[in-house]
Amino acid sequence: MTTTTSDLTSVHAGLLDYQAAWDEQRRLHEAVVAGESPDTVLLLEHPSVYTAGKRTEPWDRPMDGTPVVDVDRGGKITWHGPGQLVGYPIVRLPDPVDVVAYVRRTEQLLIDVCAEFGLPADRVEGRSGVWVPADDRGPARKVAAIGIRVSRGVTQHGFSLNCDCDLTHFDRIVPCGIRDAGVTSLSAELGRPVTVADALPVVERHLATLLA
Fold first, then answer.
1. Partner of 183 for a Cys bridge, out of 31, 68, 104, 170, CB 3.0 to 4.6 A?
2. What are the CA-CA distances from residue 129 to residues 34, 63, 109, 196, 211 (Å)?
3. CA distance 81 to 164
4. Helix, strand or coil, per DSSP, at residue 164
5. Which residues, 6+ apart, have CB-to-CB distance to 17 below 8 Å?
6. Do residues 76 and 55 touch, judged by C-beta distance below 8 A?
7. Average pLDDT estimate for 136-165
8. Three-state DSSP string of 109-158
């Protein structure tokens, strides 16, 4: 399904192989750069896959030989898979390009989505993504990850929101290179099932936050 507002097109791509999604991102990126397509956000799930950004260290990777896809986004290693909503905004940033401001807008989108489900979440100084603050259940826990690339003023890659995914997939890696914090999901924190289908319309409603 494709939804278009005056400023942004969102595409529900369903369950899509990581390589196929990456190819579609690159195709869309060229079209947006050329002015042939509007700003577009792909919203989807991936089959289980580990992807490593440019800052991934050897010791962050799985030690059991699990395959990893090396990609051209920022950040380190993460997992994508069923039960996680992934968003790939292909949007033109205003001049002068301010990547940090775009990351902050992406974080705000996800903070607002979590709040709508009743989960207080926020930023952690010096760490990208969206976090559940430390409490009596444990240290700060990441509920949404962000890893982007900006080329010729247009964004690629994006964010992932853990809805009801199997969090044990993160046990094989050092998620985002962070050893002293955990990973969580909307379902784990709220004590009730929150599926990708539940989260999709809420995320879509907040996508305008991405635009400056």
1. 170
2. 30, 25, 11, 18, 18
3. 10
4. coil
5. 46, 47
6. yes
7. 94
8. HHHHHHHHCCCCCEEECCEEEEEECCECCECCEEEEEEEEEEECCEEEEE
- Distance (Å) of CA 85 to CA 31, 48, 188: 24, 12, 15
* Closest among 93, 72, 206, 55 to 144, alpha carbons compared: 206
pLDDT digits (tens, 9 = 90+) for 162-197: 999 999 988 877 655 455 558 999 999 999 999 999
* Tokens 């990351």 sit on residue: 103
Q: Residue 54 gets which letter from DSSP? A: T
Question: 89 - beta bridge partners?
Answer: 41
Among candidates 48, 178, 15, 205, which has minimal Cα distance to 116? Answer: 205
The two three-digit tokens of residue 118, written as one number: 């009743």
DSSP 58: G
Among 187, 183, 132, smallest CA distance to 164 is for 187
- Any idea which residue has 């400023």 for tokens? 7
Q: Are 89 and 155 a contacting pair, CB within 8 Å?
A: yes
Place of tokens 């700060």: 140
Q: What are the E-state strand segments in 36-83?
A: 40-45, 49-52, 68-70, 77-80
Catalytic residue ranges: 176
For 17, other C-beta atoms within 10 Å of its C-beta total 12
Which pLDDT does position 127 carry in this prediction?
A: 80
Taking alpha carbons only, the member of 151, 143, 100 closest to residue 122 is 143
**Count of alpha carbons within 13 Å of 212, Cβ hemisphere only?**
14
